[in-house]
Automatic annotation (TrEMBL):
A Pfam short name: HflK_N
Chain intervals with Basic and acidic residues compositional bias: 374-383
Top-level lineage group: Bacteria
SMART domains reported for this sequence: PHB
PANTHER family in UniProt: MODULATOR OF FTSH PROTEASE HFLK (PTHR43327:SF2), STOMATIN-LIKE PROTEIN 2, MITOCHONDRIAL (PTHR43327)
Organism: Fluctibacter halophilus
Record-given protein name: Protein HflK
Domain Band per the UniProt entry, residue ranges: 72-232
Family affiliation: Belongs to the band 7/mec-2 family. HflK subfamily.
Chain's gene name: hflK
Transmembrane segments: 56-77
Length: 383
């Protein structure tokens, strides 16, 4: 039931207490009574009787805060890191790996990894010097060498490196032809991108070192990929044929030089042999000349017989005049000899051989108009 009900009932709790009408209590009195009760419950005494509980509490709180502040100052720097210490926001020193302590709220430590090799990829479609579109993917590997510069030279070192890498790739690809980017010039493009990236980062001095640059992929747009694949295959075949031709040239050239040397030596040997044979013939005829001058007919006949002996010894076919009948007989002696070796000679073959034995060996007795071998030719040749 409300204290101020209608009808004149006044049940105000701040009035009529102790038989007198009073207002609400004073706030100062309320707080004094509260602190007094707190002091009594803690066994404290008044101002003239010793320390109050409020002083002890403040001391404990202060000690606890100091302990928390000291404990919060311990930190650890890992083996691969170096710590950049800032005192009130200003660079103070570097700290090595290990367990360290710093005054909290005074020093700030920023750990920086200086041993791990980091990767930064970049990819995009670019226009080459010959106005072709090519998609290039590259990855740069880098390492932090100066922690302070890496932290404070630029606002965001990784973003700066990414933008510099994109700029370097587009510059190099824009000054290269598509064939160089896709095939034979990939290594040149990779090296040029690295040099251009280092030149871009040098003014920024962000404290990193480029370890390596990898060209992961370079390909034409998908719409013309098949045509470029055929072109690349043709270029690879061309290079393979060139290498095979060079290998064949290296193989055949020593062999050809050997053949040339052998032919030169054979020609020199032939020259010496012919010269010696000619000199021998000259010496033989020089010895024969006095004999011919002493007996011309006998010497001529002997020379003729020796010549015919050499001629008939090197041929297997003979033409024989059939005793002035006007018919020329052909004797394939090679075939006859083969048959003699395989079978017994027949009667016709025996008659032929008998006819050969009866041939006049003196060509002077043979008529000059029907002979197969005319003596007057040899005679005229000798004369």
């Amino acid at each position: 039931m409300a204290w101020n009900e209608p009808g004149g009932n006044n049940n105000d709790p701040w009035k009529n207490k102790g038989g007198r009408d009073q207002g609400p209590p004073d706030l100062d009195d309320v707080f004094k009574n509260l602190f007094g009760k707190f002091a009594k419950s803690g066994g404290g005494r008044g101002p003239g009787g010793g320390k109050s509980m409020g002083g002890i509490g403040l001391g404990l709180i202060a000690g606890l805060l100091v302990a928390i502040w000291v404990i919060s100052g311990f930190y650890t720097i890992r083996e691969a890191e170096r710590g950049v210490v800032l005192r009130f926001g200003e660079f103070n020193q570097f700290v090595e790996p290990g367990l360290r302590w710093k005054p909290t709220f005074v020093d700030e430590v920023i750990p920086v990894d200086v041993q791990t090799v980091r990767d930064m990829p970049s990819a995009g479609s670019m226009l080459t010097e010959d106005e072709n579109v090519v998609t290039v993917e590259m990855v740069v590997q880098y390492r932090v060498v100066e922690p302070y510069k890496y932290t404070f030279s630029v606002t965001n070192p990784e973003k700066s490196l990414s933008q510099a890498l994109d700029s370097a790739i587009r510059y190099v690809v824009g000054h290269s032809t598509m064939d160089n980017v896709l095939t034979s010039g990939r290594e040149v493009v990779r090296q040029q991108v690295r040099e251009e990236l280092e030149a871009i980062l040098e003014p920024y001095d962000i404290g990193i070192s480029i370890v390596d640059m990898n060209l992961k992929d370079a390909r034409p747009p998908e719409a013309v990929k098949s045509a470029f694949d055929d072109a690349i295959a043709a270029q690879e075949d061309e290079e393979r044929y060139i290498r095979e031709a060079e290998a064949y040239a290296r193989e055949i050239e020593p062999r050809a030089r050997g053949q040339v040397n052998r032919m030169l030596e054979e020609a020199q040997a032939y020259k010496e042999r012919v010269t010696l044979e000619a000199q021998g013939e000259v010496a033989r005829f020089a010895e024969l000349l006095p004999q011919y001058q002493a007996a011309p007919e006998v010497t001529r006949q002997r020379i003729y017989l020796e010549t015919m002996e050499n001629v008939y010894s090197n041929t297997s076919k003979i033409l024989v005049d059939n005793k002035g009948s006007g018919n020329m007989m052909y004797l394939p002696l090679d075939k006859i000899l083969e048959r003699q070796q395989s079978n017994t000679p027949s009667a016709a073959q025996r008659n032929t051989l008998e006819g050969l034995r009866n041939v006049d060996p003196n060509p002077q007795n043979t008529p000059s108009n029907n002979t197969g071998i005319r003596s007057d030719r040899f005679r005229s040749g000798r004369d």
